[in-house]
Specification:
Helix content: 55-70%
Number of domains: 1
Order of helices and strands: HHHHH
Number of helices: 5
Distance between the termini: 14 Å
Largest sheet: none
Number of strands: 0
Shape: elongated
């Protein structure tokens, strides 16, 4: 699954093939675009029940662009709150340790 996610992000041009410096900042629009790519990977890998005779709807029907934007805003607010509680920024190393 991680490989599929990385491939999806690479194909959208949101993640470079090389490592991004830890100090690099990502714009809000780029974060939304990346989250959209992640949601697409999740949706493509979701099994549609055979009992459901309706065709699998497009991701846009179930998760419009506004919902993805709200999700990114929530992630940023939660990250900010954790940084305030810990009194230090969330680093890539800490994110890996918690995943």
């Amino acid at each position: 699954m991680k490989r599929a996610l990385r491939l999806a992000l690479l194909s959208t041009g949101l993640v470079a093939a090389t490592t991004v410096p830890a100090t690099a900042t990502v714009s809000f629009d780029a974060r939304v675009k990346a989250q959209r790519a992640i949601e697409e990977v999740y949706w493509r890998h979701r099994v549609w029940p055979s009992q459901n005779t309706m065709p699998k709807p497009a991701l846009d029907v179930l998760m419009p662009a506004d919902a993805i934007t709200v999700k990114v805003e929530r992630y940023l607010k939660q990250s900010w709150a954790v940084e305030r509680i810990w009194h230090r920024p969330i680093t890539r190393r800490r994110r890996r340790g918690s995943a």
